[in-house]
Amino acid sequence: MKWSEISIHTTQEAIEAVANILHESGASGVVIEDPQDLTRKWEDQYGEIYELNPADYPEEGVIVKAYLPVNSFLGETVEEIKQALNNLALYDIDLGHGTVRLSEVHEEEWATAWKKYYKPMRISDRIVITPTWEEYVQESEHEVVIELDPGMAFGTGTHPTTVLCIQALEDYVKPGFSLFDVGCGTGVLGIAAAKLGAGKVLALDLDEMAVEIARINVKLNGVSEQVQVKRNNLLDGIVEKADLIVANILAEVILRFTAEAYDHLKKDGYFIASGIIQTKEPMVRQALQEAGFHVVEARKMEDWYAIIARKAV
Questions:
Q1: DSSP state letter for 82
Q2: β-bridge partners, 205
Q3: How large is the angle between the packed helices 188-195 and 208-220, nearest 10 degrees?
Q4: CA distance 76 to 176
Q5: Residue 124 or residue 306, greater confidence
Q6: Counting CB atoms within 10 angstroms of each CB, which of 89, 154, 164, 199 has the fewest?
Q7: 230 φ, ψ to 5°?
Q8: 249 DSSP 8-state letter
Q9: pLDDT tens-digit series, residues 54-102
Q10: Tens digits of per-residue pLDDT, 111-141?
């Protein structure tokens, strides 16, 4: 089968929205080329993990690549993608250059090339995320190792928003906690929570493929007894309450369910909200406070924020 690589030159802020558009258009893989990865100072705190080639990255902005099958519908699909990209302006999302390019690739190249971007990564003092095809030797019994197969369509767990969430979970999860992971993707946050001692985790995502991949990763990491993965739109229809809710999604989506998050938390429960670009942080903070939350802290990595809020009563 022939494949067409579609490359979109955009901004940090628009990464998640653009990736979602591509996935909904039938993309069989997504790769993010972010030049900030070249200067991210992981090595200062956790030790160098792997080397990156500057030639693979744009000088400015971010390139989001996806792979579409070459068929009679390709032209129509590309036009639908362009229209969806234009519609992002309605949500006040800065698309940046917004240029779209197409090129043909061989299936053999497509099937393996994306994996070069994904190596073992130490996220915190205790947590390491490693792809299933990489051999990683645990350094100590206290180290928490999470194996992931991102399925070529979801995050690898090393984006700043995910790192912020995992580091917050390490600080706020207590043994036996119940937890909701809203918009779970690969399931990495729910898996991390379970390995950090959470007693019951409900991982939710509206995308059927995300649910399937998350279930595979949950089983792979041996936390099936603690983590349940369910197809669901945010917290719709969920009646139970949790000690902690984590959501690594777009700021615009967080704004839609701050009140529901408050209602679905137990007394003194925590809401970890991430996926928030710097310009949207004040807006999300205000929405959380209006819903009744007390903002405990806001953590920043590059241009991204995670806000930790506590249910006040």
A1: H
A2: 231
A3: 30
A4: 50
A5: 306
A6: 89
A7: -140, 140
A8: S
A9: 555 566 788 888 888 777 788 888 889 999 998 888 888 888 888 898 8
A10: 565 566 667 788 887 888 888 777 777 778 8
Q: Whose CA is closest to 151, among 170, 137, 135, 132?
A: 132
**Check whether domain 3-117 has CATH 3.30.1330.10, yes or no:** no
Domain boundaries, the chain: 3-117, 153-311
User: Over the stretch 235-247, which tens digit does the pLDDT of each residue have?
Assistant: 999 999 999 999 9
| Long-range contacts, 297-301 (Cβ 8 Å, 24+) | 299/164, 299/167, 299/168, 300/164, 301/160, 301/161, 301/163, 301/164
Question: Half-sphere exposure of residue 103, counting CA atoms within 13 Å on the CB side?
Answer: 8
- Encoded tokens for 243: 């000690």
For 26, counting Cβ atoms within 10 Å of its Cβ (0-12 exposed, 13-18 middle, 19+ buried), the class is: middle
Q: Which CATH class is domain 153-311?
A: alpha beta
